[in-house]
Amino acid sequence: MSETSEPAFGGRRALPRNASNAAEDDLPTVELQGLVPRGVSLQDYLHVTNVHLFKERWDTNKMDHHTDKYENNKLIVRRGQSFFIQIDFNRPYDPRRDLFRVEYVIGRYPQENKGTYIPVPVVPELQRGKWGAKVVVREDRSVRLSIQSSPECIVGKFRMYVAVWTPYGILRTSRNPETDTYILFNPWCEEDAVYLDDDKEREEYVLNDIGVIFYGDFNDIKTRSWSYGQFEDGILDACLYVMDKAQMDLSGRGNPIKVSRVGSAMVNAKDDEGVLVGSWDNIYAYGVPPSAWTGSVDILLEYQSTKSPVQYGQCWVFAGVFNTFLRCLGIPARVITNYFSAHDNDANLQMDIFLEEDGNVNSKLTKDSVWNYHCWNEAWMKRPDLPVGFGGWQAVDSTPQENSDGMYRCGPASVQAIKHGHICFQFDAPFVFAEVNSDLIYITAKKDGTHVVENVDTTHIGKLIVTKEVGGDGIKDITDTYKFQEGQEEERLALETALMYGAKKPINTDGILKPRSDVAMNFEVENAVLGRDFKLTITFQNNSPNRYTLSAYLSGNIVFYTGKQETLSLIESSPFILKEELLIRAGEYMGQLLEQAYLHFFVTARVNETKDVLAKQKSTVLTIPQLIIKVRGAQMVGSDMVVTVEFTNPLKETLRNVWIHLDGPGVMKPRRKMFREIRPNSTVQWEEVCRPWVSGHRKLIASLTSDSLRHVYGELDLQIQRRPSA
After folding, report:
1. Is residue 437 a known part of a binding site?
2. Is 439 marked as binding a ligand?
3. CA distance 291 to 55
4. CATH number of 206-501
5. For the residues 524-545, what does the mean pLDDT come to?
6. 197 is in an annotated binding site
7. What does CATH list as the number for 519-621?
8. Annotated catalytic sites, by residue?
9. Which residues, in sequence order, are CB contacts of 313 under 8 Å at separation 6+?
10. pLDDT tens for residues 156-214?
11. Beta strands in 92-154 (DSSP E)
C-alpha cells in the first residue's frame, strides 16, 4: 500500500504499519489553530532555547538506570523509573501562565493509543506506573524535570520534543538527534514484566558482558568463554535493527514475550533473512566457521552493516548472539546446555534406535538423533498469558530445528510448565519437553519386518542441564528445574500429564524390562589426545556358574555434536574373550575429525546360548591443544598493553589457512590474523597493542581455526585498574 493512498474501512482511514524504529516523520514545529492576529509575535511567548539530558556515563541518569556501561552518547534509561532533564527557556518559566509538555515519539506513524506518541504532562506529583513530568528545580530561565515513564512502555529509540501552548496554537522544538532517548526493559522495576528481585542475579543476567558456554560430553564437560558485548558501540542499534528487519510492530515491542519470540526467529536466517546462517556440513568456504567466533559483536555489527545474514553459526553461536540481544534490551537471560539432547521430530517422547538382528545399528530406520549437547537460552519474564506460577525462566531457542507457527523459532516456553508436564501452554512446550524427557528405545528390526523392543533407557536423555553460576565461571546444575528425578512420583505424574495433553507414544513400552542377562558387559575408552593412538577396552563378566559363548560387534563412528555420524574404517566383529583391548590409531580418525566431532563407539554382543542382546555406547572427546595468551604492560584504563597469542602445532601434519581471532570486551575490539601455514611442532606468535577502557574483571578470548583443526581456544583473566585521578 502506498503512503498516499487512503482506503477507508467503515469510515476509518487505515494507517500503514508502524514497524520500523529507524523510520521517522518530523512533527511540525508550529501547529496553529487559526490565523495569528496582526501585531502578535509568537516569539513573545515561552520559547525553548536548549535541552539538557544529563547523558554522560558519570551522570546520575545512566548511573541510576544501570546504563553507564553502554558505549553510546545518547540518553539510555529503563522504563518505569524516573530520570532528569533540564529545559532552558528564553525567559523565566511562570507556571501560572505558561503551559508546556514533553513529547516522545517512535516510528513513522505515531499514535497515542498505540504508545508510539507519548505526551508527558507536567504534574504536581509523579504516579507509579504512569507517564508524568514534575518540576523539581526552577532556576532563572531553566527548569529541571523528573520524568517518570510507564513500566509497559515500548522499548526502543524515541525522538524527543518540547511543546509550548499559546492562545494561537502549539510551538514545538525542531527535530534534534542529540535529544534522542533509548528506553529499555527494567529488571529493577517491580511493575516491569522482566522484574528480577535478586541483585546478584541482575548483575549476572543483565550486566555481565562476558559468559561461559558449556559444551563437550556429559562425561567430559568443556568450557569456552563468550563475549556477549551487549554494551559495545553499535550493538544496541544493531539489536533494534533486528526487530526492524523482522517488521515487528512497534506497539508490541514493550512485551518481552513477543520480543523474545521474534528474537528467536530472527537470530537464525532459515526463513526470514535473520542474523546467522546455520551450517553443520563442515563446509564454510563462504564465511567464518562457527568454532572461530569468540563473541557476538562482530556478528551483529556485520549483520547491521551488510543487511545480510552472517555465515556461519551452530547452536552455541545462536545462543550466544541471542543472549546478547536479550541482555542488551534489558531482558535477564542466560545460556543453557542440555547434555544428551533429543531432537525428536514428532515430539513423541521417544528416540528410536533400530538394530539389525546381529546387533549393528540400522542407519536407514534410525531417524531420530541425540545431540551430545544442545545450547539454548532462558529469558526471565512474567507470563500473564499463562496460569499463575508459570512465569520466571522461559526456554527460548534460536537454533533452527523445527517450524513453529510458520517460522523456525522456539519459545518462550515456561520451564516450570515443562517440569510439570503442562505442555499445552504456549509456546513450543512439547518440543522442549521432548528434548529433556524422551526415552531411548532400542528396537530390533527382524528380517520378517517385525520390530521387537529390546531395551528402554529412561535416563539417557536430558542427563544434565547446566548454566554458568552467578558471580563466577563455574558450572550450575539446573536439571531439577526442568524435570523431577527419575522414579519419583512427581516424575511419573509429569509424564502422564504430558501424555494427557497430546504427547504421542506410538510404540507401547509399558512393562518392558531391561534384559537381565547372566553376562554383564562394559567398555572403557582411554583418555585420548588429538593426533595420537589410544586404547579401547571391552570386558565381560559372567555372573552365573553356566558357561557361555559370545558374539560381539564393535563399530566406531565420528559423531558430530548433533548426532550425525560418519562411519570410521574401524569395525571389529568376533567372538570376544573375557577382556579385549583394541588400539585405535590416529590415522583412522584424523581425516574426518574436524568440526567439533567426537569418537563414538557402539558395542553390541549376543549371548549365543540365551540369545540375550547386550548393548553399550560411549563417546569420547579428544584433548585439543590450546592457545596461550600473555600480556605485558600496565593493566590500567587508558594505558597501552601488549597482548601476545601463541600456538604450537602438535600434529604430524602442516596446518594451512590458519585464522586466529582475538577479542576482549572493554579491553580491545575484535581482531583476527591469518597464517598461511604452521608446520608440525612449530610455534607462531601474534602481538597486538590495546588500550583498555573498562575497569574491573575482564577477559581476553582467542580461537584458532584451520583447514584441518578447529575448536582451539585460549583465554586470560585480567584485572584492569582504574586510572588514578589527577
Report:
1. yes
2. yes
3. 38
4. 3.90.260.10
5. 79
6. no
7. 2.60.40.10
8. 315, 374, 397
9. 268, 276, 277, 278, 279, 290, 293, 299, 321
10. 999 999 999 888 888 999 999 999 999 999 999 999 999 999 999 999 999 999 999 99
11. 99-105, 117-120, 132-139, 142-148
